[in-house]
Structure formats: structure tokens, C-alpha cells
Amino acid sequence: MSVATPSPPRAVANLTPEQMPVPEEQLHSWPHFLGLYAGEHVAATEFVIGATFVALGATTQDILWGLLIGNVLAIASWTLITAPIAVQTRLSLYTYLHKIAGDRMADLYNGANVLIFTVISAAMITVSSTAVRLLFGIPAQLQWFPTSGLFVLVVLGVGVIVVLIAMYGFNAVAEFSSICGPWLVVMFTCGALVLMPALAESVLGRTELMGMNDFITIGDHSIWTGTAADGSPGIGLWEVIGFAWAANTITHFGLIDMALLRYAKRSIYGLCTSAGMLFGHYVAWIAAGIMGAGTAALVQKSIAELDPGDVAYQALGLSGYVIVIVAGWTTANANLYRAGLAAQAIFHHHSRRKVTLTVGCVTVLIACFPFVFSKMLPLLTYAGLLVVPVGGIVFAEHFLFPILGWTRYWSKYRDLETSVPAIASWAAGLVFGFGMNAANVMSFFYLFLPTWAFTIVVYCVLARFYGAADSYEDQIQQEQNDMAAIRQWQQEQAAIHHHVPLPKSTPTKILRTVAWLCLLITMILALRVMFASPDMSVYESHVTDFHRWGFLMTVGYFGTAYAALRIEKARNLNLSQEVKAS
Description:
This protein is mostly helical. The chain has helices spanning 10-13, 30-40, 45-56, 60-89, 93-135, 149-168, 170-177, 180-204, 212-223, 237-246, 258-261, 274-299, 308-316, 318-346, 352-367, 371-374, 376-404, 410-413, 420-438, 448-466, 473-497, 506-531, 536-581.
């Protein structure tokens, strides 16, 4: 017999599930976040950023230590700032922002997110197109503007697919993306292993490395030379640390990852971002630099003349096409979907599909211009600078106001549609940050820190003047009552729809075992190239084997992993339907 669903209380009636705190039964343990961040932060951008460090002239020691320190600082930012706010409130940044700053501020912030995610999506479409262009013999696109009409057609073709999937089939893409993380980590590592002997031959006169000193020598002479592509002195340790830290300011200091970490059982799970930072960024950026330099040595070109398609194909063969297309495709879809949601939150009278189509058309046009991926490093940093002031406002409201004895959510309690302190503080932070950049006061990689601190001070001063220090005892009590009603409602719903997850079936276990064996064989083939190639003739033979069998293992991995995913999804769907019918 079916269970009667109780009517929602007043506190719930006007809220969507997205606007409510995440219920306890939907929380995840740390392995979930390890996989999530490993998958999200190994993307097509790693090819671009890894090669950019080479072109900017960092030294080997600066790369090894600078990327390590910078990525550890990023992990600490997620763990100490983003995760505690997310876990304590169980809200996304967008919902939190509505509560403390009103609808106008939220609309402005959504507009900024549309801009950011549109540009990132465009860059990923362009990167994917660099792989497709090789199939048609189109020359590399190295200018800010397209130099081939056929390349524009390729971008339009790839872009149309991305837009349509973001509109209609994003769930399938999200599921497919979940299995890409392990493969991407393995392939980036393999690419570096496969091309390292070629670099060793060009620098040391032999294909084998005898130790870490040989790696440093190769790096200093042919990868991270300390000299920029134009012959000028390269960036130093502090710049490398700054970029590695600033590359994800959108998500940690800017707090966008509250949407993910609100599902964490504990705030310490912010440390799980290390799966993305230390594998996805540290390892992948170094591997991409090695692949770029190795490709340049083999084809006798400057790294500035290569694009991700060239590099991936030289290192990984046909699997190189797959890695560039898949990494760019999945990242573009996720970010275009985010852009569509942000735009739909502004134009809420229009459907998400129509808004996503409009945003997607603009994205595809931008993708026709290669500057969006060739200038990815500064674009990511400036995007962070755009949203970091908002993160400062939320930080002040959440952490500082209770310490000062002020009232959190005071703007909501005063029924303010527009929070003047929030909007004015954000504007002041932008003027301060971009003004410091224009005045060249400090490296733009670190501008997010003083901008964040400045915004916090301005917001605290203005909020004190507008009523944050006033008493709101009645409103606070009502808020507590509403939260209690929401929790009670969520518990009732969980009791109605609860079901115990099915254990993994035997076919699923077999398929996943085969998938992992495919990855293991791929890694063994790459290690064979790296450590069992005494001369160039043997090396070339081993590379040929790796390209052939590595591609077959790629097909095998995706085929078996996706089949396992579909089987488990079908079983859980059947179980859910049985529970509803009972």
C-alpha cells in the first residue's frame, strides 16, 4: 500500500529543496569527495596551464616546490574557510547570499558567474577542437583570432554538441564524467613517462635517467629553463606559488564549492581536495609541461607553436584525441550547465533550456577565438578576483559577526530586498583589486588576498552602520523555529522514501575489475617505455606498442566502466520504483 505524504509546513511551502539545508541522510563520507575532486580537477585546462609554465620560464626547482606549496595553500583554504561555512550551514553560496544580501546582490553575483563559466566553457570547447582539427589537417591556431575558416566550422560543430547536451542530457554527461577521473590521472602520468626518454636523449644523449639529478638537469635545459619564450627572464618561485594558490580562488576564497562541501559529514573533508590539487594540478601540470617540451623536441618546434591536440597526440597516440576531447567536453558541459543555471536564476521567467541555449550560442562564438585558452592562466586569476570580494562578505557575516556580537542574517530580518553594505562592499573590493593591478603594486597572482581582506573591513563597517549590531531576538527565534520545522519535514520525507542501497552485483564487480585492469596495463606499458628503452630504436618500438595497446585499453576501460555504471543505475532505479509502489 502507498504511504500518504504529509502536507509541508509553512516554513517549507515556499522553498525548493535547493534552498533548504542538506538533510543528514544525504551527507557523504570522505571517499565521495576524493573521487569528486580528482575527477573535476584533471581537465583539458591542465594541458594549457602546464605548457604555460614552460612558456613563462619557471625553473625546475620553482615548479617542484612552488606548485607543491601553492596547492597545499589551496587545500588549506578549502579546509579552513569553505568547508566550515558549508558544513555549518548546509547551504550553497547562492542560498546563503540570498539570506544575507537580498535578491539584487544575488542577481549581480549570478551575472558574474554567467560571465566566468561562459568563458571557461568556451576555452574547453576550443581545447577539444584542437584535437578534432588534427583529423582535418587544420594548422594550429596560435593567434588571438581564428586563422582558418575550417577551424571555425570545427568549433561550431563541437560547440553545438556541447550546448545540446547541456540543455537536454546533462545527467548522462555527469554520470559519464564520474568515471573519467581515474583514466585522466593515469593518462597524464603516462604521457609524461612516454616522452621523458625523448627529452633525455635530446639533453643527456641517452634515453635512460639515472636518478633525480638527471630529471633536474633535463628540466633545467629543456622544460623549465628559467627563460620565457620571448627570451626574457622567467617567473620565480613566488609567482608559481601564487598562481597555484590563486587558480581556484573562485571555488575556495570565492566559496562556490559550498555547493559541493555542504554534503560533507565533517568540515575536515576539505582535505579531500588534495585529490584534485596534488594529483590533478601538481602531477598533471608537471606532466603537461614534460609532454609539451617532449613534443617540441620530437617535432623540432617551439612549445609556443603547439596546442593541446599536438601535445596529446604525440604523447598518447589515438588516446591523445580522446583525452583532449573528453577532458574538454566534460568540463565544458559542466560549466555551461552552471552558466545556464546562473542565468536562469536572473531570468527566472524563462526555462533553463532556453536560457542555456542563449548562453551556449554566446559561448560557442567566444570559443572561435583561441585567446580564451591561450590566456587561460590570467583569465582564471582575474575571474577569482571578480568573486573573491563576495567570499569576503560571506566570511565576515559567518565568522566575524558572532565574534563581534552582531547578528548573522540581519539583512533578511530587516526584510531588505537590496543590501547596500553588500553591494557597496563588492564594488569597493573590485575597484580596490583591479586598481591595485592597474597600478602594478604587486603580482596579480596575490591580489585576491588584500582584496578579500579589504572587502571584509568595508563590509563590517557598513553593516554596523546599517543595523548588523541591532537586536533581532524575535526574528532569530522565528528562524530557529523554521529550521526545526524544515528538519522535521526532511526526516519525515526520508522515512517515506528511504531504501537500503543494493550491494554491488557480480556483473558490476567483474566489469569494474576489468576496467581497473585496463588502467593497470596502460600504466605498465608506459613504465616499459620509460624504464626499458636503452636506445631510441627500442624507445620508438615501445612507443608504438603503447600507442596501439594504450588506445585499446582506453576503449576497454570506458566500455566496461560505463557498462557497470548503467547496470547499477538500472538496479537502483528498479528498487526505487518498488519502494514507491509498496
